[in-house]
């Protein structure tokens, strides 16, 4: 394999092409003054690997780092390419696998077959819009669940949030603004219910502590005694949900 810079002039390198036996892979290079070390991750929007480098990092160091992680880069790139779901594929809903069925016939809605006994999600309407229709349904369901969970933990802690919004963040599961807005990733509806509950509790706790101090984690533990296990699940299994495309 060999590397080629995306720019030949003396301006900072913005990407590197990694040529492998399976074909070229473009890797975005991003400098971050606060970075202490080289960090490799997948950009779930573009499907490209991204390497974050600290100031002063030499190109030879970056190349060596990427070479040492070539298997991970190749595997993750292939996973993303094959992550667009089609009829017959399996999707997780609240932590349980469900088979997708794109009916290509009316009505234009999403529902569970046989009251969900056989764990099949049917997406009605034209098949070319099935993915978008499914995502809208998942977003709506996530919003309902997260609103319920957030309201419960807000009442438990004696705090109030201003509003809740649902988005598709690249790497984050949730956030809490200084104005009290709670923002959540719709993909949480694919995770087990305990994980969704933990993220809701986590962000509500930020209404009391806008940091990750000991006081903050004490609030989290009062809401979710098993939060460390739930947090570990996100670290080990959450990335696979981030790569799914509908």
SSE topology sketch:
Layout: E1 3-5, E2 15-20, E3 23-31, E4 39-42, E5 49-53, H1 59-68, H2 70-81, E6 90-93, E7 96-102, E8 110-112, E9 120-123, H3 130-157, E10 163-167, E11 174-176, E12 181-185, H4 193-205, H5 214-223, H6 227-242
Parallel strand pairs: 3-5, 7-9, 10-12
Antiparallel strand pairs: 1-2, 2-3, 4-5, 6-7, 8-9, 11-12
| CATH homology-level superfamily of the largest domain | Metalloproteases ("zincins"), catalytic domain
Q: Shape, please?
A: flat
Number of helices, where a helix is a run of at least 4 consecutive DSSP H or I residues: 6
Tell me the distance between the termini: 33 Å
Uncertain segments are 1-11
Highest CATH level, the class of the largest domain: Alpha Beta
Task: Work out the number of β strands.
Answer: 12
The name of the CATH architecture of the largest domain is 2-Layer Sandwich
* Mean pLDDT over all positions: 89
Can you describe this structure?
By secondary structure, the protein is of the alpha/beta class. The chain has three domains: 79 residues, no CATH class; 41 residues, no CATH class; 109 residues, Metalloproteases ("zincins"), catalytic domain (Zincin-like). The protein contains six helices and twelve strands. The strands form three sheets. The chain has a five-stranded mixed sheet with strand order 1-2-3-5-4, covered by helices on one side. The chain has a four-stranded mixed sheet with strand order 6-7-9-8, covered by helices on one side. A hairpin with a 6-residue loop joins strand 4 and strand 5. Helix 3 crosses helix 4 and helix 4 crosses helix 5. The two termini are 33 Å apart. The N terminus is likely disordered.
